[in-house]
Every structure is written in C-alpha cells, then in structure tokens.
Amino acid sequence: MLRIEHLTKTYGVKKAVDDLSLHIAPGEIYGFIGHNGAGKTTTIKSCCGILQFDAGEIYIDGISIKDNPIACKRHLAYIPDNPDLYEFMTGIQFLNFIADIFGVSAADRKERIYRYTDMLGLTDDLAQPISAYSHGMKQKLAIIAALIHEPKLIIMDEPFVGLDPKASHLLKELMRQICDAGGAIFFSTHVLEVAEKLCDKVAIIKGGKLIKSGTMEEVKGYTSLEDVFLELEDEQ
Amino acid sequence: MTKALFKKQMMESFAWVYRDRKTGKNRTGAGLVIYLLLYVVVFGMLGSMFYMMAESLCPPLIQMDLGWLYFAIMGLVSVVLGVFASVFNTAEALYRAKDNDLLLSMPIPIDRIIAARLSGVYALGLLYELFAMVPTLMVWFDSFEISAAGVVFSLLIPIVLSVFVLTLSCILGWVVSLISGKSKNKSFVTVILSLAFLGAYYAFYFNAYKILLEVLANAQSIATNVSGFWNPLYLMGLAAEGKVLPMISFTGMVIVLFAVVYFIINRSFLRITTANPGAAKVKYRKGTMKAGSADGALFRKELKRFAGSSTYMMNCGLGIIFMIVAAAALLLQRDVITEVALGMFEGHEDLLPLLAVAAVCMLTTMNDTTAPSISLEGKNLWLIKVLPISGWQVLKAKLKLHLLLTFVPATILVASVETIFCFDLLSSILIPAVAALYILLMGEIGLVLNLLMPNLNWTSEVAPVKQSAAVMITLFGGWAIVIAIGALYAALASFIKPALYMVIVCVVLLVPAVAVYLWLKYKGARIFASL
Questions:
Q1: Alpha carbon distances (Å) from B271 to B97, B182, B388, B478
Q2: Is the pLDDT confidence value at B16 over 70?
Q3: Please, which residues 270-289 of chain B have a Cβ atom closer than 8 Å to chain A?
Q4: How is residue B21 annotated by DSSP?
Q5: CA of B287, closest CA in chain A: separation in Å?
Q6: Which is it for strands A76-79 and A63-64: parallel, antiparallel or unpaired?
C-alpha cells in the first residue's frame, strides 16, 4: 500500500531523511518511532505530498507520488500532529468541504459524518466555528475528516496527542477495524506502549536513517519496545 | 526580557521592509534600496496632497496672525489620519495576535507584553501621522519666521502627537474589541465600524475644499472658539509658535491621557484577549447534506475566508463599497454630474467614455483579494497540499473570488455610468469590456505577486494583508497602469479617436491577461505546489 524506496530529503546541508526504505502492506498498522528531529515528520510529509523530496520514490497503491500526486492523495488521508484547520469554518462546513473535495456523495457523507461524530462525541459541536474548538476537538475533527472518503492508507503524525482517553481508545479500535478491512496505517508516535500494543510492524529511525524495522516480534524479541529503542539509541 | 520583546515586535512589524518573503532571508543591497524607494514614492504621493492643503492654509492664517490655528488644523488632520490608519491594527495586534497565548504563558508581566505590542501600533500610527505632519512642517518653516524654541517645539510636536494618536487608537481599538468580542459575527461588526470610520473620513475628504474655504472665511471666529487653555489644539498651536508653557501643558495633557488609557488597557487586556470568541453555543441539529464539486468547495472556502476576516474585507474589498456608493451617487446626482461633465468636456464629449472607464478601473483596483490570498493560507497550507486537488484549482478559486467580488459591483457602476451618460453603442460595449479585462488582469497580477512573494509565517493577519509587498504593488501598480494608459492617450490624442483607443486598450489588456492566466495555470501551479 505504501512503498518508500531510498527516500532522501535534505534541508540545506542537513540530511533530514537518508536513504530510507519501507514497505507497508494492506492490513498492517505500521508504527514509526524515533527521537525528536529523527526525520519522522519529514518522511510522513513526503509520503503525503506536502514536502518535495530530493531522491528516492514513494508509491501509494502502486502510484508514484512524484508522478501523480493527485491520484495518490485520493487514496490516502493525513492526520497531522497539530491540526491547524480552517478556523473561519464551522465543524460541519469543514467536513462538507473535505467531502466535496473527495467527491463523497450526499448519502455517504451523511452516514459517515454522523457515524464518526456520534462515536467521538462531536455531533453537538458541529455548528460551532472551529476557532472555538479545543485542541482535542480539532484533533477529533481532523480524524473524522480523514475518514470521510474511506481512504486505503492513513498516515498519522502523533495522532493520540490531545485526545481524551475515550477518544484515544476509540481511535485505536478504528485503526484496527480499518486495517482488518484491508486498509493500511502508517503512524508516528512517542508512546511506545501504544505502538507495542497496536502495531503489526514497527520502524525505528535515527538521524534520518532507518536503524531497525520488522514485525513487532522481530524488533523487540522478548524484551519491551522501550528497552529496544533505548538500547538502539545508546548503540548509535 | 523587555528588550527581547521589543525586538520581536519590531521584527514582526517591519519584516515587510527587510525580509524577502520568498526566501525568508533578510534583504540586502539593491533589494532593500528598491523597497525603501517604493515606500518613499508612496510617502511622496500622499504627502503632496497634504502639502497642497498646508500651502492653502498657512500663508493666509499667518497673515491674520493665526499661525497657531494652522498648526492646530494640520495637527488635527494628522491625528485623524494616524488614528484611522492604526485603529483596527490596534485591535488586531493587541488583542488578536496569534502569539498572545504563548507570551501570556511565559513569565512576562502583562504590561510588558502590552508595551511591546503598542510599540508596533505606535510605529504605524507615527508613519501615517507623518504623511501629514512632514508637509505641515515644511510649509510652516517656509512661511513663518520662527524662533529657535519654535523650531524645537515644532519638531517635538509630531512626536507628542504620535503618542496622542496611539492613545486614541487604543481607546477605539479597545471599543472595537469589546463590541466584536460580544458579537457572534465579529468580522461583520468590525467591518461596519470600519465603514463608519471610513464614511466619516471621506465625508471630510470630499468636503475638504469647502471646509478649507469656510475655515479661512471664519478664521477669527473659529480661533475665538478654539482658543482656551483647556483645548489641546490651541496649546499645540501656541507651542509650535515657540511658547514654552503651552508646550509643557500640551505634552502633559497627552502623557496623562495616555497613562489613563494604558492603565485601563492593562486592567482589561487579559479579559479581552482570553474571551471565548463568538456568542452563545449553538447546538448542531442533524439534517440533510448536499454534495458539491471540488471547485465549488474551494470557491466557498475562499468566500468564507474573505467574509471571516474584517482585516481582509476592509483592506482588500473596499472597492465593493466604493463602487456601489459611486453608482448610487451617480444616479442620485445625475443632473449635477452630467451638467458638470458635459460642461467640462464641451466639444470633446467623445472623451467621456474613456474617462468613465478609467474611473471605474481605478475603483476596481481597490479590490485586491488575490494579492494576500496565498499568504493567508498560513499554517493551513498543509490542508490544501494533502488534498487531491491541483495547485491550479486552488489558484483558480482565489481568482474566481476576486472576479465575483469585483465584477458584480463594477457591473452596477458601469450600468449607472451608462444610464446617466447614454453613450453610443460602441462605447457602451467597450467600457464594460475594458473594465472586465482590467479586473481579470489585476486579479491575476495579485496572484502572481503573492506566489512570488508569499508570507506564510505570520502571527497576525495584518502582516500579509496590510504589510505585504504584493498588496502594495498590486494596488499602486494597478493605479499606475490606469494612469499610464490615460497618459498614453493624452500623447496620442491627435492621432487616434477615443473609441479606437479603447479597442486597442482591450487588446493590450487581453494579451497579458491570457499570458498571465497561462503562466498561473502551469508555472504558477508548480510554484504553489512547491511552497
């Protein structure tokens, strides 16, 4: 579903991502962990077409994001760590805007919007301007907006930041349901316990380079993901 | 801490001068010089208007031994100008700056934050005040035999006045924030208040000559009414003549007033800044939903962006009001206007369509919604970039908004012009054609300039909307284009008929309009994707 091949992205003289390759298959929840400034967000933004990269290739469902970014974006959804949404819109206006962009029919959007807003407890607030939303509410709205067009691939940058425990739990359940239905999820997190419980596979990045990846069992063995991560950090 | 705060404020307030929006790097050498020259030209153009006003007032009033009244009147004009220019900036910069939360969370006393914010407002107010005060002083020094104390005080007065401008801006900005903070639709409240200010300003502007004559005719009685040691204008006038006590009294009055206002702002800053925007919570009721196209969604998004920001509406959509007011004025005063126009151009009536279209184009230039539209994406740019839409679709939506907001009032204006002047068929077709092509070209130019000079890292909307080179160049460049086309006709008038000239102008506008359209569609879309 998502194939990253030899991705390299440089800011000035600094290599933010250095020859990184990953493959996320349908049905997989793939965790992406690393220290601050390791290159996680750069990788994620490159996959979403937000950042242009210097070398390598990224394929989404077999389509190159370099050659056909619009076709790629139709299959994916991105949830950022800091959801800066259109504050001049109300919640429902924003969701309708996203649905219009993805060409979601009136009946489908109605069913999906109400399903997810009811689930995350946001329905009553949909008439409010987004400027009046808390960080957590914006994060919920960004999650709902990402799910409206039923994407094959969801890319998330620290998706649990700002969510209340219930919403966080619901999101984990949603992630599993999406992948069980054939979708794929690639997300970054600093919460290693969550990654350990939720992910099928995990990749650890440091200084822009991939230092370990594989199934959770392959990466952590009999220890915890936290121990492996800290050990790899020290080794490097 | 204080130094760091002031440095941050000055860097933000004057970033438009020294920072290249495209590269994010500081301008050096020629770039900086060109930028500064551009502002000097603007300063000169506006200053010359006030110079003419000062020249009309100063000599006669000095002859009547009322030099102080001249200084008082011009001081008042500069205060009005400074307050008008900075009042909404005050509300925006003081209470709605995006880094208010960050600064309030830091161990910084609130009065320091306010002082730093006010320094930016002060600088802007001073800049506008000097538009009137510099010519005032030039004429004053040229016409009046002034003592050494008079020279010193005259030079000090603009500085004291700028504090007075800041004080009034603070009072009005505070009122604006209080009213709009309690309203559900803040943007429209701010726009209505702005229009009230604007109406008052232009009522004064259009009656300035009449007022000037009345002032000169009734100078003695006005002087008698104004003179009194309670009146700061009188004190300021006397101070400019070199009198020490009035200078001290005037300065004292301004400082005391500012201290009171500062105290009030200091007490209310936290409450206003942290007030939850909007009115009572509205509970959403589930209903039916309608699907629309992606292009329609992008256009509606642009429209909401425009209607959701008073700063954007007031600075980039003012032409709408001007065109509608001009259309109404034409219809209401049709007899007077046709009589004056036909009288002025007797024997040269064929020039009227040319002048009419020039006037329409000048007014449409005041709508420059495209010029800051890319910068206004700011931190939301990621959203557009992650959606399955092309850069051209985004640019097209921005252009469409400009066309809608400008075509509609321009059509009303053109219709009223043609109603009262009853031009021949050819002119009646050419006027809207030239206006339409000009509107299209200016919308495109605004987009191009903003693509080349984007500012996506702002903390207050004031920066991309009011302090952007793209907006300045679009506005003044648009007027310059109209003037250049008019000047070219003046040079060619003996060889070419106005109607034929308008046909040529249509072609001259059409060619770049098509070229820029294609540039935006291909190159512009790529630049947008790389932002």
A1: 15, 12, 42, 42
A2: no
A3: 276-278, 281-286, 288-289
A4: T
A5: 9
A6: unpaired
B82: which 2 tokens?
Answer: 């400074």
Residues of chain B contacting A100 with CB distance shorter than 8 Å: 291-294, 296-297
Buried/exposed B385-418: b ≥16 CB within 10 Å, e otherwise: bbbbbbbbbbbbbbbbbbbebbbebbbbbbebbb
A113:B282 CB<8 A: no
Contact partners, residue B161, CB within 8 Å, separation at least 6: B75, B78, B79, B82, B129, B133, B236, B254
Q: How far is A123 from chain B (nearest CA, A)?
A: 7
Cβ distance of A101 and B389 shorter than 8 Å: yes
Backbone phi, psi, residue B368, to 5°? -130, 55
Give me the CATH number covering residue A181: 3.40.50.300
Is the sign of the CA dihedral B491, B493, B497, B499 positive or negative? positive
Is residue A104 included in any domain, yes or no? no
Instruction: Provide mean pLDDT across the span B497-512.
Output: 91
Nearest CA in chain A to B379: A84
Q: What is the pLDDT of residue B243?
A: 85
Give the mutation candidate from A68, A94, A100 for the B interface (greatest B CB count, under 10 A).
Answer: A100
Residue A173 to residue B152: CA distance in whole angstroms: 76
The residue whose two tokens read 């642009």 is B302
Report d(CA B144, CA B8) in Å as an integer: 42
The reply to whether B301 touches chain A by the CB within 8 Å rule is: yes
Q: Is residue A126 part of a domain?
A: no
B309 touches chain A (CB under 8 A): yes
Residue A213's domain spans which residues? 2-83+151-235
pLDDT band at B388 (very low <50, low <70, confident <90, very high): very high
Contact state of A106 with B283 under an 8 Å Cβ cutoff: no
- In one-letter notation, the amino acid at residue B18 is Y
Tens-place pLDDT, residues B280-325: 578 888 888 899 999 999 999 999 999 888 788 888 888 898 899 8
The alpha carbon of residue B187 is apart from the nearest alpha carbon of chain A, in Å, by: 10
All residues of chain B having their beta carbon less than 8 Å from the beta carbon of residue A109 are 289, 291
- Is A90 a member of any domain? no
Q: Is the ipTM of this complex over 0.90?
A: no
**Cβ-contact A20, A208 below 8 angstroms:** yes
Residues of A in contact with B380 (CB under 8 A): 84-86
Residue B46's nearest CA partner among B126, B124, B133, B125 is B133
Contact at CB, A102 and B389, closer than 8 angstroms: no
Return all residues near B366 (Cβ < 8 A) that are at least 6 apart: B318, B319, B322, B475
Minimum CA–CA partner of A129 in chain B: B278
Q: Which residue has the higher pLDDT, B114 or A140?
A: A140
B288: chain A residues, CB-CB within 8 Å? 106, 110
Name which of B186, B188, B284 to mutate to probe chain A: the one with the most chain A Cβ atoms within 10 A of its Cβ: B284
Our count of domains for chain A comes to: 1
B148 CB within 8 Å of a chain A CB: no
In a domain, A228, yes or no: yes
Query: Is pLDDT larger for residue B367 or for residue B344?
Result: B367
Interface membership of B387 toward A (CB under 8 Å): yes
pLDDT of residue B308: 85
The dihedral through the CA atoms of A142, A144, A149, A151 has a sign that is positive
pLDDT tens string A107-151: 999 999 999 999 999 999 999 889 889 888 999 999 999 999 999
Instruction: Report pTM.
Output: 0.72
DSSP readout, B365-423?
A: TTB-TTTTTTGGGGGGHHHHHHSS--HHHHHHHHHHHHHHHHHHHHHHHHHHHHHHH--
